[in-house]
Amino acid sequence: MTQPSDPQNSADLSLDDELPIGPGTSFTFLYYFATAGVITWLFVARLFGVGLMTTLPEEIGLVGGVLFGLVGILFNRSTTLEIPFTSKKKFRQQLSDVMASMGYALDTTEGSVDRYQKPKASRFFAGDIFVQQRSQSAIFISRVSNIRTLKRRFEKS
């Protein structure tokens, strides 16, 4: 026998399908590790005038890859934040104020998900912020650096 599903929980679960999923910890580390490792490997080989297959460029490239991989995890992996609220109208005003103070503006709305972006060329370096408003909370998805800033700004206001 199957249990009848709760309509409230079913609606909330279906809304989650609309949220974009960005790169997590593993992918972010691998991306930064591989990119920085290869660049460091080539740079060291050229700088010291040694062959690419010698151990010096390989070892320094490995260390550079690990360091930049960890930095990538600290600042650029995707993460989520859930902010509870009691009044949807007050929260929308607070959301608008917080996003404006961070330099973000509403770009598009697809279904129940709002996408905020910075204007002009800075959008390529800052990353998007996706917001899904539910009945009593809002879910944010973005880079961890943006989520940390959002959390601080919502705690202040």
Describe the structure.
By secondary structure, this protein is α+β, with helices and mostly antiparallel strands. It has helices at 7-16, 25-48, 55-76, 88-101, 123-126, 144-156; strands at 78-84, 105-110, 113-117, 129-133, 137-143. Helix content is 55%, strand content 19%. Strands 1-5-4-3-2 form a 5-stranded antiparallel beta sheet, with helices on one face. Strand 4 (129-133) and strand 5 (137-143) form a beta hairpin. The protein is elongated, with a radius of gyration of 21 Å. The model is unreliable at 1-15 (pLDDT under 50).
Order of the strands making up the biggest sheet: 1-5-4-3-2
Number of domains: 2
CATH topology of the largest domain: TATA-Binding Protein
What portion of residues belong to β-strands?
15-25%
Shape: elongated
Sketch the major β-sheet.
5 strands, antiparallel
| CATH architecture term of the largest domain | 2-Layer Sandwich
Rg, please? 21 Å
Poorly predicted spans: 1-15
Put simply, the count of helices is: 6
User: How many E strands?
Assistant: 5
Secondary structural class = alpha+beta
**Helicity, in percent?**
55-70%
The average pLDDT score comes to 86
What's the CATH class of the largest domain, please? Alpha Beta
Q: What is the CA-CA span between the terminal residues? A: 48 Å
- Look at the structure and name the CATH superfamily of the largest domain: Kinase associated domain 1, KA1
